[in-house]
Amino acid sequence: MTRTLEISHSLLQEMIAYVDQRAPLEACGLLAGKAARAEKMIGVLNQAQSPVRFVMDPYEQLHAFDWIESNGLDLVGIFHSHPAGPETASPTDILEAAYEVVHVILARAGTQWKARGFWIEDDKASEVALQIME
Ligand SMILES: [Zn+2]
Asked: What are residue 113's phi and psi, to 5 degrees?
């Protein structure tokens, strides 16, 4: 089964701007949308305030879920950044993945950010295609 996530180019730029502002700390948030299409990003405070891990602030996360529900959308993805790499899901990401949605990792190399998507299940991460739409 191939899982994909569609993200508009402008939404991707919005995510990159969000995580770039918070670098070198990791940043995180939720992606809301319908079916396999992300329509909105909601940034959530990284309670860990760490450059190598993230813990979503529970209050902000709850607030974000309320917003998604009241707007008739679904949780379609979770994003977080790796300001110092790598591009792939870390063992901690795999261990702590709590939702069966696409995990988008924004990794920085030099001044450029690159987005990759992963499906995490049964203690392993497999890459899924992110479709960046105009
Ligand atoms: Zn990570």
From this structure: -110, 140
